[in-house]
Design goal:
The protein has a domain of 174 residues: 3-Layer(aba) Sandwich (Peroxisomal Thiolase, Chain A, domain 1), CATH 3.40.47.10. It contains 14 helices and ten strands. Strands 1, 2, 3, 4, 5, 6, 7, 8, 9 and 10 form a ten-stranded mixed sheet that branches. The longest helix is centred in the middle third of the chain and has 21 residues. It is globular. It starts with 9 loop residues before the first strand and ends with a strand.
């Protein structure tokens, strides 16, 4: 036993993020350290954490400079928390901050720590730009030289090609396909049409706009760099307008810039704690983080689509919890692409797939679309890769806290590399 003999409930006290911004826009001059620090400082202020030592701050970034090897710890030191608070960097692509939340929750449940922050941050505007490996090797050969000539000789091989920058790619190393191209294959296999994708995207924008107008995001979003709301949001969009856009990944494809997530900058965090720790500080418990699951599929040698791991992760988690897919009041399924969400839903409705792939006697069933991403999803709000999980946890816990009739909500996030991270949140009923 690592620490305790009794597993404790894990409270979600609340979350905070900065507005998500389209890449190369409002946050062009802000990097990961500035954005994550802003979120941590905001959480310290909002939850009265000044000078407190937390057991852990776990977060990560997908697009990350080598100089930021200790990113989270450096941000903690500027946050207002006690400097003795440790920081942990981790990364599971788009599931990073949800994975961080599950990791922090496990430590709380086991009694290793009493409270911690989980988060994520990502920038496209400040991505690392490097030079070819041949140039790197040339420089290292020079550095290893023991004489002046040995240090100068490698530079005789210097050529103009060495100064051609190498930008980070969005291709899967194993397949050479972009995520959009991979999702096009999924859409074809599951026969997901353009019209349905555009309808889901338009609904995502409409619901996010309504959430902002109703004040739902007040207290969840802290202004940053002159931005007060998510600037990818298009209040006046419609399925008809989205239908005019050209395919983005394949000439005859169905995925467009309108029904896919935009390249986005942003950061988000969520405060987790034991029940006793929260109550001792007069902090509300919005919800409980009760189950989590990660999964992966063989998208290279098998027949699975790159973003189909949630289809497996969710039923495995439901078995752990003893629940059915219909036992939820809210569903938060990450909209990497509208097509990905629709493929996932269709797989769960397929008797053949659920029998042959999931080993179920019957289909997992349908999800009530009126309960799905009710405050908008990633297509409308944006998707800073590592930050999305914390955004979703904060959104869902607020939804559960605000709805006296609610019981629980489900989170499903697909990631690069054919992986998924999922979780179940339960409403605090004061018990």
């Amino acid at each position: 036993m690592l620490v305790g003999s009794n597993v404790r409930r894990v409270a979600i006290v609340g979350g905070l993020r900065i507005p998500f911004a389209r890449a190369h826009g409002a946050y062009s001059l802000a990097g990961n350290p500035e954005m994550l620090t802003a979120v941590l400082q905001g959480m310290v202020q909002r939850f009265g954490l000044q000078g407190l030592r937390l057991g852990e701050v776990a977060a990560g970034a997908v697009m990350k400079h080598s100089r930021d090897f200790n990113l989270v710890r450096e941000c903690v030191l500027s946050s207002g928390l006690d400097p003795q608070t440790p920081g942990l960097d981790l990364q599971r692509a788009c599931g990073t901050s949800l994975e961080a939340a599950i990791g922090v929750a496990n430590k709380i449940a086991l009694g290793q720590i009493d409270a911690g922050i989980a988060g994520g941050v990502d920038t496209i505007s400040d991505t690392p730009v490097v030079y070819p490996r041949s140039y790197q090797q040339l420089l290292l050969q020079s550095w290893r030289g023991r004489t002046a000539w040995a240090r100068l000789r490698p530079f005789l091989g210097l050529r103009p090609k060495h100064f051609k920058p190498v930008f980070p790619g969005a291709l899967e190393p194993r397949t050479g396909l972009s995520m959009g191209q991979s999702c096009e294959l999924m859409a074809r296999r599951w026969q997901i049409g353009r019209e349905d994708q555009d309808a889901l995207a338009a609904e995502s924008h409409a619901r996010a706009a309504a959430a902002w107008q109703s004040g739902f995001f007040e207290g969840l979003v802290e202004p940053f760099n002159g931005l007060r709301i998510d600037d990818n949001l298009r209040e006046d969009t419609s399925a008809e307008k989205l239908a005019r856009l050209r395919p983005a990944f394949e000439r005859d494809g169905t995925l467009t810039a309108g029904n896919s997530t935009p390249l986005t900058d942003g950061a988000a965090g969520v405060l987790l704690a034991s029940e006793d720790w929260a109550r001792a500080r007069g902090l509300p418990v919005q919800a409980w983080l009760s189950f989590g699951k990660s999964w992966a599929v063989d998208f290279t040698g098998g027949s699975e689509g790159l973003l189909m791991a949630p289809v497996y992760a969710v039923p495995a988690m439901l078995r752990d919890a003893g629940l059915s897919l219909q036992d939820f009041d809210y569903y938060e399924i990450h909209e990497a692409f509208a097509a990905q969400v629709l493929c996932t839903l269709k797989a769960w409705e397929s008797a053949e797939f659920c029998r042959d792939k999931l080993g179920l006697d019957a289909p997992l069933g349908t999800v009530d679309r009126a309960r799905l991403n009710v405050k908008g999803g990633s297509v409308a709000i944006g998707h800073p890769f590592a930050a999305t999980g914390a955004r979703v946890v904060a959104t869902l816990s607020r939804l559960l806290a605000d709805d006296p009739a609610a019981r629980r909500g489900l989170i499903s996030i697909c990631t690069a590399g054919g992986m998924a991270v999922t979780a179940i949140l339960e409403r605090n009923r004061g018990t």
